[in-house]
Design goal:
three-stranded antiparallel beta sheet, seven-stranded mixed beta sheet, Aspartate Aminotransferase, domain 2, binds pyridoxal-5'-phosphate
């Protein structure tokens, strides 16, 4: 049996580089609570991405929860059923009601033309995911939000490095959140960020992520523990040195897949125009669920892991009373993410594509 090919694999920098950060952490004996490395990573990320107010938090889920709290959301929140479970579970955890709106059949992102019919007097916001790092129809979503006085949060967990109209995708909406989980394109092992343009909002976010501590003996508002540690920040600082090569390698691997699958009976999401895509996943859409299952079985036999991402739809979670979203329903049954990570070899891609084309 050949070596197992995972669907994803975390990027690991040279160990010595991480270890040199550890020596300083030991010398300082300062492990968490907004330490110097957390602050340095926030500065470097803000510069690298070109965003104004970025707060590092402990993961991408708490980032979403803090975003909702910071914007005082209530009642119903329009959202997509085609995303990772955290997009919906965080809404429910915050005691709001997710209202699902269907996705666009080409981009797999929330369809802005279907938002309005789902708005009620209780709607307070739209939470949309830039699926696979592919930008949403930002202008149309913003137009609906402006007409109905709704907040917009983007779950931009897949979007590190994606640009739209020449600037970071994180600069759109009232707040964008990101995940720096180990499987994401840029990671701090566990981690995430809340990004906004509004300095006052960021101050509120920073209070919220630290129990509401406003000085040692004073508390402003209800907070939670959303802090990240010096050890996580160190991983981020080392990984950031490699981010350009990570992004370039993914673009290259994606191109290799594309060439091999040119004549295959599959399609791919349409990337939003005016954007620089970050190639964070390699999803393929089959013509039928049957075809997908056959391919997945054959790949599994060859010890190659794939993932039905996103399946099932979030509207099918057992704690959800979801509206019908036929487009998302059709797509989630036919979408498969192929192995895609920094060290994936061209030879393995060739092998995967041969198997796909044999079905
Ligand atoms: C990974 C992910 C999250 C959750 O991030 P964590 O850091 O794992 O909490 C949320 N939304 C989407 C779309 C994700 O892919």
């Amino acid at each position: 049996m050949e070596d197992k090919i995972p669907v994803t694999q975390p990027f690991l920098p040279p160990r010595e580089e991480y270890e040199s950060f550890l020596a300083d952490i030991w010398d300082r004996n300062w492990l968490t609570n907004n330490g110097p490395l957390v602050q340095e990573l926030e500065d470097k990320l803000s510069n690298y991405l070109g965003v104004n107010e970025l707060s590092l938090v402990s993961n991408g889920t708490i980032a979403l929860q803090i975003a909702m709290k910071a914007l005082n959301l209530e009642g119903e929140i329009i959202t997509t059923p085609f995303s990772y479970v955290a997009t919906t579970s965080s809404i429910v955890w915050e005691n709001h009601t997710p209202v699902f709106v269907d996705i666009h059949p080409d981009t797999f992102n929330l369809d802005p033309h279907k938002i309005e019919e789902a708005i009620t007097p209780k709607t307070s916001a739209i939470i949309a995911t830039h699926v696979y790092g592919n930008p949403c129809d930002i202008e149309s979503i913003q137009a609906v939000a402006d007409r109905h006085d709704l907040k917009v949060i983007y779950d931009a967990a897949h979007c590190f490095g994606t640009k739209y109209k020449g600037q970071s995708i994180f600069n759109y909406g009232d707040i964008s959140t990101c995940s720096f989980h180990a499987t994401k394109l840029f990671h701090t092992v566990e981690g995430g960020a809340v990004v906004t343009d509004d300095p006052d909002l960021r101050q509120k976010i920073n209070l919220m992520r630290n129990f509401g501590h406003d000085g040692l003996n004073n508390f402003t508002g209800v907070g939670i523990n959303g802090k990240n540690s010096e050890l996580h920040a160190a991983m981020g600082l080392v990984n950031l040195r490699y981010i350009d090569s990570v992004l370039a390698q993914r673009k290259k691997l994606s191109g290799i897949y594309d060439r091999h699958l040119e004549d295959a009976d599959i399609s791919k999401p349409t990337i939003q125009s005016h954007s620089e895509y970050n190639f964070s996943y390699y999803p393929v859409l089959f013509n039928s669920e049957k075809q997908l299952t056959e391919v997945q079985e054959k790949l599994t036999e060859a010890n190659i892991q794939t993932r039905r991402y996103f399946y099932p739809l979030l509207s099918k979670l057992d704690y959800i009373n979801g509206r019908a979203t036929p487009v998302a329903n059709r797509i989630s049954k036919r979408i498969l993410c192929l192995p895609f990570y920094h060290k994936l070899s061209e030879e393995t891609i060739t092998r995967i594509c041969k198997i796909i084309k044999s079905v």
